[in-house]
Design brief:
It is globular and about 50 Å long. It has one domain: NAD(P)-binding Rossmann-like Domain (Rossmann fold), CATH 3.40.50.720. The longest helix is centred in the middle third of the chain and has 31 residues. 40% of the residues are buried. It is built from six helices and seven strands, in the order E-H-E-E-H-E-H-E-H-E-H-H-E. Helix 3 links the parallel strand 4 and strand 5. It has a seven-stranded parallel β-sheet with strand order 3-2-1-4-5-6-7, sandwiched between helices. Helix content is 38%, strand content 15%. The protein is α/β, with parallel strands linked by helices.
């Protein structure tokens, strides 16, 4: 994958999370330009000449998402890691909870997919290399394997899967490849703290999942689209 990303422009939403930081670090090491919308301020964030933060940005805000993508030159790939988790059986899940899971997991994914595709099409129409492009979404194992006790989260991530597969079919003529990665529990400090007695060595690390994401988003991936790739480790 060395040189695959040199001078390519890549959007990473959720770039300040554990998985997002791993993806951004990998991309920068491979020569990419990273565009990272963040709900945080710029204070204290790491600096890099090829790293562009857009601070205090909510990717559920349609107008802000449209404006953000309009500023990304020659967009090659868009990687969508923004999401949220809530456990709870159906009797414990309010309509507010259910809608919140859709907003953070599905609305963000939809808006960013749409604007990324429009930007990639515009670049191609203008004859600006590189084209076509890649989109990678993040689903979750409960979206493809029935799992109790997290109904709102499971349904929301299932919608991300449906969005990914539908777009992959829709983008065939544009040669834009759209895939999703479905992790199990990710080995992060927060997850270790919440499940101290689990076998943490069985969980996939952010860096390991980032490798899968970066392959899907890279020029090396020439034929895979509409896939939901399991990234379960031994969990």
């Amino acid at each position: 994958m060395i040189d695959a990303y040199t001078d390519r422009h890549v959007v990473v939403t959720g770039g300040m999370g554990a998985l997002g930081k791993a993806v951004v670090e990998h991309l920068l090491a491979l020569g990419a330009w990273c565009h990272v919308p963040s709900t945080e301020s710029l204070e204290g964030l790491p600096e890099h000449e090829r790293l562009r933060y857009v601070p205090q940005m909510d990717v559920t805000d349609e107008a802000r998402v449209v404006a953000f993508y309009a500023e990304v030159p020659d967009l090659w790939a868009s990687i969508h890691l923004v999401g949220g988790y809530r456990s709870g059986a159906i009797e414990e899940t309010s309509l507010t909870d259910f809608r919140a899971m859709f907003e953070i997991n599905v609305t963000t994914c939809f808006l960013c997919c749409r604007e990324a595709i429009l930007r990639m099409r515009a670049n191609r129409a203008a004859g600006q290399p590189p084209s076509p492009g890649r989109i990678v979404n993040v689903a979750a194992r409960p979206a493809v394997i029935p799992t109790g006790g997290m109904i709102a989260y499971s349904v929301a991530k299932s919608a991300v899967v449906a969005l990914t597969q539908g777009l992959a079919e829709e983008m065939k003529a544009d040669e834009i490849l759209v895939n999703a990665v479905a992790p199990s529990i990710i080995d992060t400090p927060a997850n270790r703290q919440s499940m101290p007695n689990a076998d943490h060595t069985a969980w996939p690390s952010p860096a390991e999942i980032a490798d899968v994401i970066l392959y899907c988003a890279s020029p090396r991936n020439r034929i895979t689209s509409g896939a939901v790739i399991p990234a379960y480790g031994r969990a």
